[in-house]
Amino acid sequence: MSAVKRKPRQPVAGRKRLDIRDVAHHARVSIATVSRTINRVPTVDQELAKRVWKAIEELNYFPNTQARALVSGRSHLMGLLISEITNPFFPELIQGFEEIAVKNGYEILIGSTSYDLERMDTCIRRMLERNVDGVAVMTFGIEEPLLEEFASRNIPMVFVDSGPPSPLVSALVVNYRHGIREGVQHLAALGHRHLGFISGPLQQRSCQLRKAAFLDCCAEIGLKPLDAWLVEGDHTLEGGMRAMERLLAAKEHPTAVMCSNDMTAIGALRVLSHKGMNVPEDLSIIGFDDIHLAEFVHPPLTTVRMSRTDLARAAFEALRSHIEKPDQPALPSRYPVTTRLTVRQSTSYPPGVSISNGKRTVTRKRKTAAK
């Protein structure tokens, strides 16, 4: 693979400190035209704007973002609050959000809350100090008094699932039910009738919605999971391991388990492996999120996909609408995000059942966890 060729830079010792006047001179335009071009004012003549951007590239000029903010009254900076940087879902979300933001002339400021109120407060105050134009809140459990800091300054916000009622607040409405319904029906079509569910922390609305969707979809096809098969986790690997241990300690085991996120499912896979149980022969597993790692665990994980690209794009567009079109009436307050099942190798027929010539037959006794 050939190395990427980069434009040679001037030696540091001889490099002149460029400013907007140098760009204007090089592009043969006024300083005001350069300023409006850099700040992406839409009324700038397109031909002049092309000359300005060409001059910026040829001079290797980096606009002063603080000066831009003073001129335009906007920082061109968006805040992104996430729950936990160690969960692969969030780095993938950050990457998608940053890509679309940079393409549209914005930078992002990331804050990882780790579900800690003091850390949330620090993240929020840092964003206020940097004068962010808007904030995408991709975390849960933020206290309303903290969010009032943004609201009192008329800073637009976008939330997952729901947010406080305000003209400057939008919600990304995830259709959890669609993907979970596909998962439940996939298991039912394979012959499973004993389904379990490991939720995330149930004080979070998204976790409540995922569990409710699972129970509703089971009821649609006449299934009612035992209470012992409904276990609360915490969306971490370790939480998935503890939850699976609890499921296996029950007097009866489900034949398939859906998990509220992929990290939980991967933790569950680890416990089953340690117990000498095979997935999917002894127990089928379905995750949720479809993180990149899900395709590379053993066995590759069947999971409900929630596109980080779609989530990031919807969050960005919601904020940009408020930032760049503040006077536009009736801005959308809800942005739909869909989900769908991705079938891999962690789901199969129930233990002791196989299909031959279209007929279901019992082939062996079910294997239980080693004590």
**CATH third-tier fold name of the largest domain:** Rossmann fold
Order of helices and strands: HHHHEHEHEHEEHEHEHEHEEHEEEE
Outline the biggest β-sheet: 6 strands, parallel
Overall pLDDT metric: 86
Considering DSSP H and I runs of 4 or more, what fraction of the residues is helical?
Answer: 25-40%
Content-based structural category: alpha/beta
User: In angstroms, what is the radius of gyration?
Assistant: 26 Å
- CATH architect. name of the largest domain: 3-Layer(aba) Sandwich
Spatial gap, N to C terminus = 51 Å
Explain the overall architecture.
The structure is a single chain. The protein has helices spanning 20-27, 31-38, 46-59, 65-72, 89-103, 117-129, 144-151, 176-190, 205-220, 237-249, 262-274, 308-324; strands at residues 77-82, 107-112, 134-138, 157-160, 169-174, 195-199, 230-232, 256-259, 284-289, 302-306, 334-337, 339-342, 353-356, 359-362. By secondary structure, the protein is of the alpha/beta class. The chain has three domains: 17-72, lambda repressor-like DNA-binding domains (434 Repressor (Amino-terminal Domain), Orthogonal Bundle); 77-175 and 308-338, Rossmann fold; 176-305 and 341-350, Rossmann fold (3-Layer(aba) Sandwich). Strands 2-1-3-4-5-11 form a six-stranded parallel sheet, sandwiched between helices. A six-stranded mixed sheet has the order 7-6-8-9-10-12, sandwiched between helices. Helix 1 packs across helix 2, helix 2 crosses helix 3 and helix 10 packs across helix 11 (262-274). The longest helix is centred in the C-terminal third of the chain and has 17 residues, at 308-324.
